[in-house]
Design goal:
Largest sheet: 6 strands, mixed
Oligomer: single chain
Order of helices and strands: EEEEEHE
Helix content: 25-40%
Strand order of the largest sheet: 5-4-3-2-1-6
Radius of gyration: 13 Å
Number of strands: 6
Strand content: 35-45%
Shape: globular
Number of domains: 1
Structural class: alpha+beta
């Protein structure tokens, strides 16, 4: 269950037994939201939020931060997904301290 990013208290991670579609879990304390990342021809087409069973969505302020982060880092998240799930290689966790626009 590698953590791939930390961003203003939000942890973004994959679960080791995860499945398609490409997605990332955003966790803040006891809250968790899953972001499905949909690409078309190499461009971010859509970002879908869904609830993790048994967990509440991120609080509104953290949800806004997480959504903007995933939009900005979607390609990098997909690269880490490929590295971890396809190549079976380790991924490193990066701490991002600069707010995305």
């Amino acid at each position: 269950m590698p953590n791939i990013y930390t961003y203003f208290g939000i942890i973004f991670k994959f679960y080791s037994n995860d499945h398609e579609p490409l997605h990332v879990h955003a966790i803040f304390g006891e809250y968790e939201t899953i972001f499905d990342i949909v690409f078309s021809q190499g461009e971010l087409l859509e970002l879908k939020r869904r609830k993790k069973r048994g967990k509440d969505h991120l609080p509104p302020d953290k949800m806004k931060l997480a959504e903007k982060f995933v939009e900005e880092y979607a390609l990098r998240i997909s690269e880490k997904w490929y590295q971890f799930f396809v190549l079976k290689a380790d991924v490193t966790c990066e701490t991002i301290n600069k707010k995305v626009k």
